[in-house]
């Protein structure tokens, strides 16, 4: 009885060790590849939305323009200074105003063609804290909404392939992973707890270095973020 009992225990231990080794081997990713896929790729870029450019430098010009006597309709609508003409969600704009990150100053003028409004958008310097690249030109401003974080790697495979169909075999490393989207805003929610992603990395035979060939993120990510403005 003791022998049979010990045999069962030993059998379970061996099976357990095999499973641990299988999992460890199946999901072991070289550090260089992890760096390329998760830290040097689009995966590491914040989920963001573009912002219209700042109008503070032009406010005085707009104010003087609207206070002057305009006779010709040819000069009635300098569209470049009209914040309403730019692509920005109305709810998001109200959120920025509520957070005192932006102020909208309205100017108007009237001539023979009618009345023309000129809203001017002026940002508080605090807006820089929320930008993906605070040093970028305002034409390239992007407001951070959320970031991606890796939860686990579910599958890996290392093999040889001919990715470009030229008869040149290259060492290939592919993986599937699970990640989550973490909001940067306190009043934001994410529809899904987990997202699926995959990547393929090739070993360049000329340089001996791995390079990212393909990175696919979950298509559900695009409409997963809900912000209560």
Question: What would your notes on this structure say?
Answer:
The chain is α+β, with helices and mostly antiparallel strands and 229 residues long. It is built from 4 helices and 9 strands; from the N terminus they run ααβααββββββββ. The chain has 2 domains: 27-48 and 144-227, Nuclear Transport Factor 2, Chain: A (Roll), CATH 3.10.450; 52-130, no CATH class. Helix content is 22%, strand content 35%. A 5-stranded antiparallel β-sheet has the order 1-4-5-7-8, covered by helices on one side. Strand 4 (142-161) and strand 5 (170-183) form a beta hairpin. It starts with a helix and ends with a strand. Mean pLDDT is 82; it is low at 13-26 and 76-80.
In terms of topology, how is this protein built?
Elements: H1 2-26, H2 31-38, E1 47-50, H3 59-67, H4 90-98, E2 102-111, E3 114-123, E4 142-161, E5 170-183, E6 188-190, E7 195-203, E8 210-216, E9 225-227
Antiparallel strand pairs: 1-4, 2-3, 4-5, 5-7, 6-9, 7-8
What amount of the residues lies in strands?
A: 25-35%
CATH architecture of the largest domain: Roll
Broad shape: elongated
- β-strand number: 9
CATH class of the largest domain: Alpha Beta
How far is the first residue's CA from the last residue's CA?
A: 69 Å
Ranges where pLDDT stays below 50 over 5 or more residues in a row are: 13-26, 76-80
Helix/strand-derived category reads alpha+beta
How many domain regions?
A: 2
User: Biggest sheet, in brief?
Assistant: 5 strands, antiparallel
Q: Number of helix segments?
A: 4
Residues in helix, %: 10-25%
């Amino acid at each position: 009885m003791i022998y049979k009992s010990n045999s069962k225990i030993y059998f379970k231990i061996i099976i357990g060790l095999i499973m641990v080794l299988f999992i460890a081997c199946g999901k072991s990713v070289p550090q260089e590849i992890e760096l390329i896929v998760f830290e040097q790729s689009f995966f590491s870029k914040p989920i963001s939305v573009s912002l219209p450019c700042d109008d503070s430098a032009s406010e005085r010009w707009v104010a003087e323009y609207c206070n002057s006597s305009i006779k010709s309709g040819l000069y009635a609508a300098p569209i470049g200074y009209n914040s309403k003409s730019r692509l920005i969600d109305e709810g998001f704009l109200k959120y920025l105003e509520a957070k005192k990150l932006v102020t909208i100053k309205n100017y108007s003028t009237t001539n023979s063609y009618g009345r023309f409004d000129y809203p001017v958008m002026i940002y508080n310097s605090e807006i820089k804290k929320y930008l993906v690249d605070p040093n970028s030109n305002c034409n390239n401003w992007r407001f951070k909404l959320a970031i991606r974080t890796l939860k686990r790697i579910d599958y890996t495979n290392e093999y040889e392939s001919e990715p470009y169909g030229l008869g040149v075999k290259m060492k290939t490393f592919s993986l599937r992973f699970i990640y989550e989207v973490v909001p940067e805003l306190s009043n934001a929610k994410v529809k899904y707890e987990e997202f699926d992603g995959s990547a393929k990395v090739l070993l360049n035979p000329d340089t001996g270095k791995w390079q990212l060939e393909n990175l696919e993120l979950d298509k559900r990510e695009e409409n997963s973020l809900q912000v209560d403005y």
